[in-house]
Amino acid sequence: MNFQITSLAETMNATEFTTELDNQNIDWWIEECENIMNYNEGDCIITIGDMSYQFLNGELTDVYEHEF
């Protein structure tokens, strides 16, 4: 499933990504975000389970396993 979500993140900006996650009933949360009103401005980290997706100005820049 992580591969499918990563593939999805690579094709969308941060806002589109979170909207699609909601549409697919996938639980996610914002770990860190410079502008909580617009995920496409600045740095934004979206976490799903143990995976984090880091976006910078809406573009996916990194995917990593989150250590809890």
**Strand numbers in spatial order across the main sheet:** 1-2-3-4
Which spans of ≥5 residues are poorly predicted at pLDDT below 50?
A: none
Distance between the termini: 20 Å
Shape: globular
- The radius of gyration is 11 Å
Give the total of beta strands. 4
- The mean pLDDT is 92
Helix content: 25-40%
Determine the number of helices (DSSP H or I, runs of at least 4 residues).
2
Most strands sheet? 4 strands, antiparallel
- What string, H for helix and E for strand, traces the elements in order? HHEEEE
In short:
The chain is α+β, with helices and mostly antiparallel strands and 68 residues long.
Keywords:
35% strand, alpha+beta, 68 residues, 2 helices
Structure description:
It contains two helices and four strands, in the order ααββββ. It has 68 residues and is an alpha+beta fold. A hairpin with a 2-residue loop joins strand 3 (51-56) and strand 4 (59-65). The two termini are 20 Å apart.
Write the layout of secondary structure elements.
Layout: H1 2-10, H2 14-23, E1 29-33, E2 43-48, E3 51-56, E4 59-65
Antiparallel strand pairs: 1-2, 2-3, 3-4
